[in-house]
Amino acid sequence: MPTPPIIIIKKKGGHGGHHGGAWKVAYADFVTAMMALFIVLWLLSSSSKQTQVAISGYFRDPSGTATKLGSALLGTGESLPLKKEDMAHLKEELQQSIQKMNDLDKLKKNIEMTVTAEGLRIELLESEKGTFFDSGSSKLNQSGQELLTVLAAELGKVPNRVSIEGHTDSKPFSGKGNYSNWELSSDRANAARRLMQQSGLSSDQVSQVRGFADQRLRNLKDPLDPSNRRVSIIVQYISNEAAGPAGENGKESAAEKPAGDARSDENPGRKKDEK
Fold it and tell me: How many CB atoms sit inside 10 A of residue 130's CB?
């Protein structure tokens, strides 16, 4: 029989099968996690105490404190004291709340907020016919009640103490009796205090109620300017609270002492010039 042919099979060497790209996904996740860690560490090292507390609170309880980062400065969750570096943010928050008021276009030029050496000063300026108070009276009108209610609801969320001041122009009262600009400035400040404490401020949050009459004019060149008639609300810095009564520049003077006991909102039977 014929000899069968010899078949030789040669196998070529090669690499193993393809392992896929799963390692790339894992590596990308690792890099993302590291980036997030570095961002958190940077925030904790460069942010204010309030932001640090909000971030740490989020990681402890994401569902319960996640909203703190944006609104913690107004006391959502924990009440955190506001320092000087936080007042600009508080000012923005208050301005946003005021934007929701009715007839804001008529009032916005009579509302001023300024960060001063004493704290955030909120000025409610009167017009010639009266903007927030009835003319010649310590009775708040509808606009005054609405604005003070909004401010009290927001300021009641922070632990900082608040002082309230009343001011008049230099036009004296006419008629009989001892009721003067001193009484009117004190009464208007106290009227603002009562409403704000009914609308959000805590009972011990107001540190001072001061009446200055016309001793601290806003417009020195025109003592009869209606804008001299105003109520000022000052959100005090924490560092100032322990120092006791202080004026706008942090120093007490004889002119800055309160006018005495608060009078009633109305003073029937006395004729007054418009204030």
Answer: 18
